Amino acid sequence: MPDVEFFYDYSCPWTYMAFTRLREAAARTGSTIIWRPIMVDRVRREVNPSCAASREDPEPRRARYQAKDLQDWADFCGLKIVKPDDWPPETNRALSGAILAAETPLIAKYSEAIFRAYFADGRDISYLEVVAEIAADAGLAGIVAHLEESAPADRVRDNEAELLERGGFGSPTMFVGDSMFFGNDRMPLVEFALGQASGRTFVMPGQHG
User: Fold this and answer.
1) Are 138 and 110 within 8 A, CB to CB?
2) What's the CATH code of the domain at 59?
């Protein structure tokens, strides 16, 4: 059964879409997702220090198109995505929760709830009490007491260091074996790679005939 490593941060709406589509691709190909939470802004500061400045003062035409593109993709994925005024949020507690949740079968449920809380419901996942409530509602009340411990936060940083060492630069990044894929729009290629790795006949759209 093939594996796909998923390096991701809850602050990115494109990652929310990729998360949803990756779960579907994994189900179709019989694959296992290896969850690798990262804080994407720390990664970006390492590889592209000017990114924050361009985000604070975007070119207007490009910004208008990017907003349209985001909603077009959200519609395509069947998701409600609204970027709150406080975007991007501080995700350190939510990511520590992901490290802890990944040790249980409830990591996907937890991650979906975190993404939906911020991008659909407008809840501020920067706050400990918000993340704690989401975790408890997902059946993970046992992790709440550990959300601010250093060990899960250290593992998030370890994931970031590994991603940078392997040539990554943002979220979402997926690895199938040593092959890296970046971005929500690369999901067909991820699914194709998983299909090939499964050893089963796998036909992507456009390859029929």
Assistant:
1) yes
2) 3.40.30.10
